[in-house]
Amino acid sequence: MGALIPLARESVSRTTLPGSVRAPGAARAFVRTALTGRSAAEAFAPITLDERSIDDAVLLVSELVTNAVLHAGTRVEVVCRLQPGDGADSPYGPEGGPYGPEETAGPDEVPRDVPRRPGIVIEVADLHPASTVYGGPETQRRGRGRGLQLIGALAESWGVTYHRTRKAVWFRLDAERAATEFDTVSTSALGRELRFAETLAPIPPREQRDPTADWVDRGGPSFLAEASELLTGQLDENMVAALAGQLLVPRLADWCAVWLTTESGGLQLARVWHSNEHRIGELRTSLERHPPPTGLGSAGTSWPWPGVADSQGAGGSAVCFPLIAHGRSHGVLLLGRAGVPRMAEGVVRLSEDVARRVAQAVATARQYTRQATISRALQRRQLPMSLAHIPGVDTAIVYEPHGEGQTVGGDFYDLFPMGDRRWCFLLGDVQGSDPEAMSVTGLARHLVRLLAREGHGVESVLNRLNQALVEEETEAAEIDGEQSRPRFLSLLYGELEPDPAGGGARCTLASAGHPLPLRLTTRGAVAPAASPQMLLGIDENPDFHADTLALEPGETLLCVTDGVTERRNGVRQLDDDDGLSDILRDCVGLGAKAVAERVRRATHDFSPEPIDDDLAVLVLEAVPTVEPRRTA
Where is this region: Disordered (predicted)? Predict the structure, then answer.
């Protein structure tokens, strides 16, 4: 056996975490950052780590750090090593470990004559000389050491290294591995979340009398913190119900069921989970026949034990918890534990805490769903389902409303035909992005369509729309008094008449308080295509006028909202010193869709901060008319 040598060219990252409930979350973030950063890409090139390898590493380090916090409560050091390997293809040794069957080295070294594949080595060290957090193989065989069971299933190799002042558990994952039985779990968002849910805390040993109560006292706070982190941010109520089952079984119960309230006020069985998956079907059928009452008021209410819940017929204890958040019931959580006449008080108390977090997560998911539904309903009235096709004019639109989960904002657009030879287009922006602002956008778009189809030209459309907004604002002020807020509207509105003979199009347009449209010629010259005028809804008697231009074949008209021009990076705005013109000038020769995407990307790249306003871009490009070939 050759002498041991240090690993070459490996990348090492390390961090020290306090012995608190936040340590597992911090460890997961640390490892994920180390495995998705530039160092990992350089270390494993040309190999690219897949999501499964990253998820497995994050999953295992979460389990080890959680156990260290639960049992020892001391600081832990997490070390992540990226080992690029030496290009050999053969395995490490007959035992499958990185050191061969007779070596006892730690993860820092490998034998000189053992080929090394690219891999990830992660070490979790308990910074306490007398700690006995993790057991060895004998402890593993006695059914203890949940973290080591999982490591044994997922890791290519693992071990425990004892130092004079600390003890460390390490594991190694190959950068390229064959699939394992754990990889049958879905790679969807639900599948990944359930894998993490299964490692929040070790399963309490069953060989002792009521061991769950002892585990609750030690691991309850950390388990509760991790459960909160897992449930927070879930935006689907069925996902919340699924995660609740994975959290509670088998840690606190042998089986559980989650009912969710329906719109009619009844209860619908959303999820049933059992530690023995073969009993889930029978248990679901039994629970569907005997649901809990909808008006369940108190937590920890005893519930009759369903006979199909256990195969031995020994019975057990079942307890109901109402899912109440913000004074409203969102469902019921039912837990069952076999072989005990009554659940321990600590188990009931911890289950009640989890039920409160499940209820809050369901309430949040439902609120998100309601808001998304309202936004979609408003969108159907505010934005066109599709843009009209204009012969001889290529069109493109980019629309990004501001706000998470928002499908429509204060910006709006439209492009519609007026007979065979004329098309109308508009791009507008209402102050604000609340529901009231959204209602103004819907009013403006439909009123413009109505006025245009009645034969009103560009100037007349703007004057009549302005009159309607002023009248509505006056009526709102009379009803709401001081609570009424003025809603000013900026609008770019125009008409296009394509020339079927020579190509290009005649454009008549006006800009009412809106960022001026820009015209790009085939030679790269950029200039405003309209003159500035006042906002709509301010003055009762404005005098709007229209500008006319000929859009030659190959020329482009760029229309944007202030989400583009007023995009900030510190004190600077994107359109300072004609910044938007410079962007458009570089788009010579690009099609309408490419120009729209170039402007969108430049807007995002202008600042590292997220965009804080709605963003809309409309591009019209005159293209040569292709005449059909004549046949002799």
Answer: 84-111
